[in-house]
Design a protein that fits this description.
2 helices
Length: 78
């Protein structure tokens, strides 16, 4: 599970097996894991986060979208 970014309590990562899905990122804090598509940015799975925290995470993903997409492309580059 390559980590693309750590910000505060959040770890943003993807699974090596995610290659055949559209670009996305998983966000983990403690025992919760959400999933956001990157193009366009939208929530796929809330993973137990509150609505308020999902809003914060969405903003975080939007702020770092370019570097997250770059990490995705770099890792899955054929």
């Amino acid at each position: 599970m390559p980590t693309a970014l750590r910000v505060g309590p959040y770890r943003l990562f993807f699974y090596a097996g995610d290659r055949h899905e559209p670009p996305h990122i998983h966000i983990e804090r403690e025992d919760k894991v959400s999933k956001f598509w990157l193009d366009p940015i939208r929530l796929q799975e809330s993973g137990g986060f509150s609505r308020l925290e999902i809003g914060r995470i969405h903003k975080l993903v939007a702020e770092h979208r370019d570097s997250l997409r770059e990490a995705w492309d770099e890792y899955f580059d054929d």
